[in-house]
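QA checklist item 7 of 12: single-chain prediction sanity check.
[x] sequence parsed
[x] length recorded as 196
[x] structure emitted
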Amino acid sequence: SSRVLYHRWRPSSLGGDIWITDPDAPNAVAVGVPPASHPFTSDFRVSPDEEYLVWASADEQEDYWLYSAPISTPPGAAIQLNAAVPQSALAGHFAISPDSRWLVSASDDKTLRLWHADTGQSIGEPMRGHEGTLNGAVFSPDGRLVLTAGLDRTAQLWSVADHRLINPNPFLRHSDRVTHAVFNGTGNRVATACVD
């Protein structure tokens, strides 16, 4: 795609929003605008099919809401993905599945949540297995697995279909906090980064 999306920072009291433009277009269009209650946009992702974007917005207490909006001109309506979930249960860590159907969010309350990307509804109960805050989550290239990184010094593998840990024992254990975890391009290997 020739379209460009970017996050525009504004004065701290106003937070930030997300804009889209074509390289030769005279004016950009705002497609992701956080609500006044949660003006601080921390990050955003574009779906692999390039149909929508998801972003995390926080308030001054760093409680997060997740939003999704179609990538369109004029802008489409944004939906809140986690309206029924306590704000304190979410962090600004999230990923979109390769087929663009699902979202996963990694949380401060040690849980992992799956969401329908089109409706914003959560799928099942929160998944538990980490003993500390989660630093991130990513889908495998085929979308069947999720890999998480945690402050509990572990990286864990989860089954999307079964909504559970692949192995109750930690998939990978480090001597200090795991800050990142990713799959390689084929999904048969992972790489982790940690404070040790």
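[x] summary fact logged: Residues 14 and 39 are 6 Å apart (CA to CA).
[ ] second reviewer sign-off
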